[in-house]
Predict the 3D structure of the following.
Amino acid sequence: MIGTLVLSGCVTTPRASGAGQGGTVIASGSSTVEPITSLVAEDFAAITDGFDYQVDGPGTGDGFALFCDGATDISDASRPIKEEEAAACEENGINYVELKIAVDGISVITSTANDAVDCLSFLDLYALLGPESQGLDNWSAADDLAGELAAELGDEYGAAHTPYPDAALEVTAPGEESGTYDSFIELVIEDIADTRGEDAVARADYTASADDNVIVEGISGSGTSLGWVGFAFYDENSDVLRSIEVDGGDGCVAPTAETIASNEYPIARDLFIYVNTDRAADNQALADFIDYYLSDEGIALVEEADYVSLTPEALEETRAVWEGR
């Protein structure tokens, strides 16, 4: 989107309207973080003139590719930058700072029509969605693998297996370009896959998309669906989606703002923006934009976007990182 922004010159209080400098800010990356960055931009637009911005969300991986190629000023990310991405930035002379801006919980979702499954353990999720589930097109077809995992790994990754329903298993979820995919694999699949001597990946035979709206449509359109999205997208579509509680080893927990903030929910992850520091030094508008993003006014938009705010201590750490760049 393109718009007009007012930019702030300090961390806690935005400047008066008209005090910002003209210029352009371009942000791309995570579709999960995009709503936050967009709201901050829209908030600026309400109090400023003379500044253009562009925000889109092709996925964290695609965003880092653009960022490390010098095509964007800000990279929205639902996971930390990978070593190979950092190496690409270094090779291209892109200096940056990592700023944690919110917390999200990855929601395991199904259709509201599916009332047969209330809770899934990490072992269940591996059996249904992991690398050894390739080709399983019925929930009950994963029973043998789930039973084997339960016998091998005990209750370390969740409760004992309960037989799945005899129903078609239709999976719609983020693709490999998505930070939400990477976070789900890291938090849920990776340790079990390593124990089993398998690659830490999701099954390849599912409907994959970097667009959360496509995932919502796919999940809501099938009565026996399964997938995962960021909490905000589940919450704003809870009229057509139902979240499945997750047992990471300490019992079944539903994704809520409270359980995510308390780390009780086992699939929680930090959200970030990465800022090109050389661009910020040359483009006062970019520096002012990030100042406002981290201001009390800007950071309050995290909850408006339906994500979980940082603790005061974590927010101060983020502000200190930005000020110390």
